[in-house]
Design brief:
The chain is 21% helix and 26% strand. It is an alpha+beta fold. A two-stranded antiparallel sheet has the order 1-2. The relative contact order is 0.17.
Length: 108
């Protein structure tokens, strides 16, 4: 943990993918989003942010992705389901309703 001084500096959200492939080194691909608390500003990642992260991971890894995901409301929204269905290189496995021990990114 890093102490940061200054009032009202905002909040940082991080979305990450732990990428594992047999015979290759593992990777952590992530994106950050700074929330300054401005009126009307979204306080979390949107479907478009996750789409950009997944697209970047697909481009960087150069192959299909099997994604193990929790049941965060943004992960299971209608917009995200449509986004997943439109990508033939993406297969999503859903975790049970509450399973932080099964999600390796929770500990990063």
């Amino acid at each position: 943990m890093i102490a940061v001084s200054g009032k009202g500096s905002g909040r940082i959200s991080i979305a990450g993918l732990v990428c594992v492939r047999a015979g290759h080194r593992s990777r952590l691909i992530y994106r950050t989003k700074v929330h300054r608390g401005r009126k009307g500003e979204r306080r979390s990642f949107a479907e478009t942010d996750y789409a950009a992260l997944l697209g970047a991971a697909h481009h960087q890894l150069g192959g299909p992705i099997v994604l193990t995901w929790d049941n965060l409301n943004t992960h299971i929204s209608a917009a995200m389901r449509a986004l997943i269905a439109a990508r033939d290189w993406l297969h999503v496995i859903r975790l049970p309703a509450y399973a932080p021990d099964l999600n390796p990114v929770e500990h990063v």
